[in-house]
Each structure stands twice: as structure tokens, then as C-alpha cells.
Specification:
Layout: H1 2-28, H2 32-43, H3 56-76, H4 80-113, H5 117-126, H6 132-141, H7 148-178, H8 183-215, H9 222-239, H10 244-255, H11 263-288, H12 298-321, H13 328-336, H14 342-353, H15 359-376, H16 381-387, E1 400-403, E2 413-418, E3 439-442, E4 445-447, E5 460-465, H17 470-478, H18 488-491, E6 494-496, H19 502-509, H20 522-529, E7 539-542, E8 545-553, E9 556-563, H21 579-614
Antiparallel strand pairs: 1-2, 2-5, 3-4, 3-5, 6-9, 7-8, 8-9
Helix pairs in contact: 1-2, 2-11, 3-9, 3-10, 3-11, 3-14, 4-5, 4-7, 4-12, 5-7, 5-14, 5-15, 7-8, 7-10, 7-14, 8-9, 8-10, 9-10, 9-11, 12-13, 12-15, 14-15
Organism: Azospirillum doebereinerae
Pfam family, one: Na_H_Exchanger
Domain Transporter-associated: 487-566
């Protein structure tokens, strides 16, 4: 009994210390995962705690369960709109990017550490996966607002590259222990894992949603149901030959994008559970590490860490994003935001569990790489985003939206706004009946509704609204971007109607004009330029000015910005990456332009032929 109490006391103490020190990390912007890892190291056998923990089997079991919980929450919190914006580039990074990173690092490990090819590639596979939780925590703490496409690419990549890296690691361990399989066998194994994982995950997500919606449990029981379903889907898919990690992510993705009872409470529960899982994983892996063994591999491991950050990750990102319309600065930022975390350490345990001769060396190398990544990249994400001019002005919409579960087909949300200083509401404009707040908080105190007039900047207003009314309410409480000098660099100097034609704008400002585009509206021009998937901040050069997507709603572009003196938001500001890739990208752009010119020429010829035929 005393031994059990002692273990519980030690475990809870480590968790409390981790939570308390996270407050300091929030204040100074330190990567939280680095704090948790450091606590584990300090408490371990080489630290001041002198706790001896040498049980990789238990560590892998606990870590796998924690990772399943994290991946379910990652999918549950990802909107399908993110996939619409960035599915193909993110999936390319999660597959081809992982393969390129594994190959480059494997080649380096083979020569720097004299490892056999299978074990050298295991080092690459272990560190090929990025850590989403660390990236987005740092973005939030630093007040960094990125364009949706960049953020969605990073989010989807980090959620989907974990299963790919895990499958690759398992295959390489099999190769190291039983010899290399044929390429066809490897391809068949990967295909089966992906197909089974996706199909069983979506099926499990559907069963989970149907069960919760039909069973009508007491609200407090729903989180227990989702947790047990997530673990069941993870384990059963693994037993059937699929990827349990991919399955649990797919199940969360399905459940998070359909109507689900108690969705708000479930999101809060799984967000807290994910934090607990992150803390447990990193503290436990810190306890498992033995820093006194790091000296023998410190130099090659540091070389591999810097090679990963400065060569392998940038090379993989630039190659994978060549077919997609990312600016050089966006590509550079995605390349830099490749933090390694718990998944890398968990994968590095697989060679140890497989009994490989150099398994411990693989784990120690991965540990050093993770620490360097968190130290170097984790502290510089904000500075990198600002230096590359990727910060988007904060949106003026609701601070928070809460979906309400009302009887019947009632479709209402509780929304919260912070009144903007230059908004119509703050200037005393009379609010329509459907936009009047139900609650106003001013300086931390509730103000009676009959005393709030006029609303003041900084007031927090709460009101019930139909989702269709939110764009109008945004303008009342959030104000217009045209009023903000600070937004001009990103959104332009003037506001144009998206229904104006290219010919009208060209004539008004003396701009060069392609006759094929003259009749197009600005909305259609931007839509054609970006394949119908525009987002705020997308920009098209037109002579000496730029047309910018300024405002959007559910139906498309509602206003277009005109930058009279382009500010170079997309101008390349970094020389971190290979010139060869820049040349390849420029060649691709030239080829695309030439194809466009040929299409325009053929289209004009057909129009001319049609005109002659009609005469």
C-alpha cells in the first residue's frame, strides 16, 4: 500500500510541477513541451530526483494510448474547410515529405554514425514527423495570426504525417530484423494500412456519432463514450492490419464535422485530456532518457539535428510545395515550422523494443534532435513569421461562437464581440433590434442594458444570432478594415467592388490589359487565378498595382483591395534554402504562364472564327 501511494505521490507531484512551470513558459514564450521534457530529465536518474525508470515497454504502451487521444482530438478539432484550402499540399508533405526527410537524414546517419542502412533510415523515420501541439501553442502565445491556407497546411500535415512515419518505422524495424522485403510487399503493406485505417476510422467515427446521438446519455457520460470509442478504434484497427493512428484521426475528423450532441463539452474535455497526454508523454520520456549516454553520440546527433532543420526539412517542403501556389515566404515559413516532439521520441522506442543492436543509439539521437528543434525553432517561430511578413491583421469577427442545442430546427448561436474603437456601434449608431446585445461587460463588470448606451470601445457584448446574420453583425461591432491604417499593407489602400470589371479598373488606373480578361469581374479574375479557392489576403499583380482579396463570406468575395504601391508582402526575404529549388519554381511559373498564353490565344482565335461565321 505504501509503495502504491509513493508512486501516485511522485506522479502527481511531477504533474503539478509541470503545470506550475507552464505558467512561466506562457509568460516568456518557451515551448511548453520543452519544459515538460526538462522536468522529466531533472526527475530522472541523472537529475536531482534520481528516479530510475527503465521500462520502454510501459513507456511505449502509455505513449501509444496518449498519442491516440492526441490524434483523435487533432481530427476532432479540424474543420473540413481546412482540407478544402490545403488538403493536397498538406497530404503531399505528410507522405512525400516524410519520405524525403527520412532519406536525407538516413543518408547522414549512415555516414556520420556508421549505422547499417536500415537503422540509419530508422533515425530519419523517427524524426520525420512534426509536432502540431507545439507549433500552434507557440502561434497562439505569440499572438500570431497566419493566413488560413498556411495554418491549415501545417495543421493537416502534422495530423496526418504521424501515421505515415509510424508505418515507415515499423517497416524499417522489420527490415532490420528479418531482412528487406520486396518493394511490392512494402507498397502492399502501406496501402493496406492506409486504406484499412481510413475506412475503419470513418466507420468508427460514424458509429460513435450515431451511438451518442441515439442513446441520449446523460451529458457527463458522453466524454467517457468518445474516449473509449477512440481507444477501441485505435486498437481494433491495428489488430486488423490497418493504421490505428490514421483510423483514430479519421474518426475524430468525422465526429468533429457532423452534428453531435454535447459537442462543446466534448471539445473542452478532449482539449484538457490532450494537455494531460502531452504532459504525461514528455515527462515519462524525460524520465526514460539517460543523459550520461549522450556524450558518445553528441556531435553526430547535433550535426543531424542541424541538417534536419536547415537542409532536410526545407528540401522536403520546397519539393512538395512546388506544384502549389505558395509564395517563397510562405514556403520558407512552413519549412521552418517543423518542430519535432513526442511522436519522434515514441517512434525512436520502436528499435529498442525490437531488440536492435543500435536501438538505444537511435533513441538517444532522436532525443537530442527533439531538444535542439524545440530550442532553436520553438523560440523563433514568432520572429520568423514577422520577418517573413506573414502576420495577418486580426479579424474583426466574433471572439467566440457557441453552438446551442435547441429543440427542433432552431438555428441560433451565442456570439461574443469586443467592440472595436472605430466600429459603428462605438460611434453611436442605432443598433437594429436583431443585433441588440443580451449582456454587456464593461471593465470586468456586468452593465445593465438600459445603461450601456452608447457602447464603448472594449465592451464585451453577448448576443444570440442566426449564423446567417453574423456578417452584418461583424460590421456593426467590428468596424471596417478601411478605417485602419495598420491594415493597409496587407489589404491595400482602396476598396473596390468585386463586380467591377477588369477593363473598368484598367481604364481608371491606366493599367495594362489582356483583352481576354477585360470582361471578367474582379471576383471572377481572382477566382480563376486561385482555382476557385480564394482566401483573405490572396493577391494578383496587375501592372504596377495589386488586387487583394479583402473580405469574404460564405458565398465568396465581397470586397477587393487595391494596393497602389505593392508592399512586397510576398517578396522573398530569406536565403535559407537552395537556389536550385528557386530556379525550379521559377521555371514552373514560366511554364504555367506560357500555357495560359496559349490557352488565351486559342480562345481568342475561336471567338474570331465564331464572329466570322456569324457574319
Amino acid at each position: 500500500m505504501d509503495a502504491v501511494s509513493y508512486i501516485i505521490l511522485i506522479g502527481s507531484t511531477l504533474l503539478i510541477v509541470s503545470i506550475l512551470t507552464s505558467y512561466l513558459a506562457l509568460r516568456i514564450g518557451t515551448p511548453l513541451l520543452l519544459i515538460f521534457l526538462g522536468i522529466g530529465l531533472l526527475a530522472g536518474e541523472d537529475g536531482i530526483g534520481k528516479i530510475s525508470f527503465n521500462d520502454p515497454q510501459s513507456a511505449f504502451l502509455i505513449g501509444s494510448m496518449a498519442l491516440a487521444v492526441i490524434l483523435f482530438e487533432s481530427g476532432f478539432d479540424t474543420k473540413l474547410s481546412s482540407y478544402k484550402a490545403a488538403a493536397w499540399p498538406a497530404m503531399t508533405l505528410a507522405t512525400l515529405g516524410v519520405a524525403i526527410t527520412t532519406g536525407v537524414i538516413g543518408l547522414a546517419a549512415h555516414h556520420l554514425m556508421n549505422l547499417p542502412w536500415a537503422e540509419a533510415l530508422l533515425v530519419g523515420a523517427a524524426v520525420s514527423s512534426t509536432d502540431a501541439a507545439a507549433v500552434f501553442f507557440l502561434l497562439r502565445v505569440g499572438g500570431i495570426t497566419l493566413r488560413d491556407r498556411v495554418r491549415s497546411t501545417l495543421e493537416i500535415e502534422s495530423g496526418t504525417n504521424d501515421p505515415v512515419a509510424i508505418m515507415l518505422t515499423i517497416i524499417l524495424v522489420e527490415a532490420a530484423t528479418h531482412g528487406w522485403a520486396s518493394p511490392w510487399a512494402v507498397a502492399a503493406e502501406l496501402s493496406r494500412a492506409v486504406v484499412f485505417g481510413t475506412a475503419l476510422g470513418l466507420l468508427g467515427g460514424w458509429l460513435l456519432v450515431t451511438f451518442i446521438n441515439k442513446a441520449n446519455f446523460e451529458t457527463g457520460l458522453n466524454p467517457v463514450v468518445t474516449l473509449t470509442f477512440a481507444l477501441f478504434i485505435f486498437a481494433s484497427t491495428n489488430m486488423l492490419g490497418g493504421s490505428g493512428y490514421l483510423a483514430v484521426y479519421a474518426a475524430g475528423l468525422y465526429a468533429g464535422n457532423v452534428k453531435l450532441r454535447g459537442a462543446l463539452e466534448l471539445r473542452r474535455f478532449h482539449a484538457g485530456l490532450t494537455w494531460l497526454s502531452q504532459i504525461v508523454m514528455f515527462v515519462m520520456l524525460g524520465l526514460l532518457a539517460t543523459p550520461h549516454d549522450f556524450g558518445a553520440i553528441a556531435l553526430p546527433a547535433l550535426a543531424i539535428a542541424f541538417l534536419l532543420i536547415l537542409v532536410a526539412r526545407p528540401l522536403a517542403v520546397w519539393v512538395c510545395l512546388l506544384p502549389f501556389r505558395f509564395s517563397a515566404n510562405e514556403t520558407s515559413f512552413i519549412a521552418w515550422v517543423g518542430l519535432r516532439g513526442a511522436v519522434s521520441l515514441l517512434l525512436a522506442l520502436v528499435p529498442v523494443l525490437g531488440g536492435l543492436e543500435n536501438g538505444q543509439m537511435v533513441f538517444n539521437t532522436a532525443f537530442i534532435v527533439v531538444v535542439v528543434s524545440l530550442l532553436l525553432q520553438g523560440w523563433t517561430i514568432g520572429a520568423m513569421a514577422r520577418g517573413l511578413k506573414l502576420i495577418v491583421p486580426p479579424r474583426r469577427g466574433p471572439v467566440e461562437r457557441v453552438e446551442l442545442e435547441l429543440p427542433g430546427d432552431a438555428d441560433q448561436e451565442l456570439v461574443t464581440y469586443t467592440v472595436h474603437a472605430k466600429s459603428p456601434a462605438a460611434r453611436g449608431q442605432r443598433l437594429p433590434r436583431w443585433a441588440r446585445p443580451s449582456l454587456v461587460i464593461r471593465a470586468g463588470a456586468v452593465v445593465p442594458l438600459h445603461k450601456v448606451k452608447p457602447l464603448q470601445p472594449g465592451d464585451h457584448v453577448y448576443l444570440f444570432s442566426a449564423p446567417s446574420s453574423l456578417p452584418l453583425i461583424d460590421k456593426l461591432f467590428g468596424g471596417s478594415r478601411a478605417l485602419d491604417q495598420d491594415d493597409r499593407e496587407f489589404y491595400g489602400d482602396l476598396v473596390l467592388s468585386p463586380d467591377a470589371t477588369v477593363g473598368q479598373i484598367a481604364e481608371m488606373y491606366g493599367l495594362p490589359l489582356s483583352l481576354g480578361n477585360a470582361r471578367l469581374t474582379l471576383r471572377d479574375l481572382l477566382r480563376n487565378e486561385f482555382g476557385g479557392s480564394c482566401e483573405l489576403g490572396d493577391r494578383v499583380r496587375m501592372g504596377g498595382v495589386e488586387l487583394i482579396v479583402r473580405d469574404m463570406d460564405d458565398h465568396g468575395i465581397t470586397s477587393v483591395g487595391l494596393a497602389l504601391e505593392p508592399t512586397g508582402v510576398d517578396k522573398r526575404r530569406t536565403a535559407l534554402f537552395l537556389d536550385l529549388l528557386k530556379k525550379l519554381r521559377d521555371w514552373q511559373v514560366r511554364q504555367s504562364f506560357q500555357r495560359w498564353k496559349r490557352r488565351e490565344k486559342r480562345r481568342n482565335e475561336r471567338r474570331a472564327d465564331s464572329a466570322i461565321g456569324s457574319d
